[in-house]
Amino acid sequence: MKKFIIRSIHFAMAPILAVILMLVIYIVLDPFKIIWHYDRFIENNAKAYIALNQDYVSTKTFDNNYQKYRYNSFIFGNSRSIFYQISDWKSHIGQSNSAFHFDASAEPLYALHKKIRYIDSKNVRIDNALLIVDYDLLKKIKPNTGSLYEISPQLENNKNAVSFHITHFKTFTFPNFFIPVLYFKLTNNVLPFMKSTLDYRPRSVDPITNELRFELFEKMITDGTYYTQERMKHFYKRGGQQVYSKPALSSSQKLLLEDIKDIFHKQKTNYKVIISPLYDQEKLNQNDLYYLKQIFGEKNVFDYSGINKYTRDYTNYYESSHYRPHVAREILDEVYITE
Question: Most buried of 9, 71, 118, 207 (most Cβ within 10 A)?
Fold first, then answer.
């Protein structure tokens, strides 16, 4: 009977010990870089990357640097906003401004609003702002879920801190994540079976401005080696006739947009709202466009959605979701032409 009890205790303790061991490994490795302090979240042009929560990376980079670098100009939006290069923007707003990319993957309007409120709560100037929006961003009134997309605890006054960390730990414990990540962390080697877990796209990130660039991709495009048969599979055939999106803005979204406008008005912000030229060529609902112009001013809202000179040419895109820096540069030149 005594042996049976001992064996039962061992059997019951095994899962607990396994979780504790996994937790220790998770804390030591910190694969998502949300536990320890980092001056730089990724190394430029590394072999591969563990995908990080860009909302957290942007927010933490801002927290680490805003007092030192005195940011006063901000680019907001989802991952499509990252290709509005600060060097191009400064040619319009002035070289003396200190600019920062405050982006997030699949950014919802809810989180974008939280970021602007967060900056304002720190008594940080917002002298210049770019809002890079699209239908997907505008329609989202709730925070995203999942380790890659959850809103940073700082932006929620740490109300979601526990759930934020639990979500990331759970993701780490999945075998199809844990095994390749542990191997990569311990050896810095990449194997074919890791391709579904790690991000292999080479990039460089400025740890001060939080600006990302795919410099190797641009070189490959110049050399004529980027648009391979495999990559061309991303560029599906479009219909050819103009299609409009469903309405994105309800009363909830409008309240957030009005609050953003109030903060900009209080701060005397020079701002522009740019509706992205997406490969799908779907034009923003005209009632939504009318409202954006009504709230932010017609001279400050620029609609590049739908069928146009940018969306017709697939070489303006890295894939069917992200347009390239030269497109953003031309848009900035057009947006600021009258100033």
Answer: 71
